[in-house]
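Morning!

This is the sequence you dropped in the shared folder:
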Amino acid sequence: MKRTAAAVKAKDAKPATRDPEGVRRDILTVAMEEFSQNGLSGARIDEIAARTRTSKRMIYYYFGDKEGLYRRVLEEAYGKVRGGETELDLEGLDPVAALERLCRFTFEHHRANPAFIRMVMIENIHHGRHMQTSDAIRGLNQPAIEALQGVLRRGQAQDLFRKGIDPLELHWQISALSFFNVSNSATFSHIFGGDLFTSEGQEILSRHVAEMVLRYVLRPDHLSAIGKTD
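The structure's back. Tokens below.
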């Protein structure tokens, strides 16, 4: 039987070569969705393979096993938020503006990345077991505390900020205020209504989170600086 030109072309065509780094990125993107939606135990490698047009064998080649992939997804999630913080140019701002920008960034990042929040919640269910084996996550997070410490020191040197503020505790406070907004949005809005989760409500919350942190940090005679950093 005579073959059509299209059939000859399809038969003779060589399969497209996929970029290995692109394949890895695709796997991590889909795995983030799968793990954040279904947890470590509920996530299916078959589903990740199907959605990325690859194979379980290839996934295991890149990441070792399911837990290795999960740990790598955690590292990517933390790397994204810490990478965003390094782009804020906190050292180029006055201390009040720097702290406000950091607060607003953290709130908006968490709001825009609910999968990150779910991944952190899932890892807490596992008592942080996988984070403990990741040198990358420890290395990513320590600079965040150091950057905040630098902002505090500059503010204290200018007599703007109170003395004795622990940068780790302040990081905890900023994270807690921003985290709850996403982690408890479903239950909170079901009980109290969704007004706080409209675009306007979220903007107000974001602004007030920064204001609360600044009121805690600023010396009483400098509270008038709040809201004047634009």
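Headline: The chain has two domains: 18-64, 74-220.

More detail when I'm at my desk.
O.
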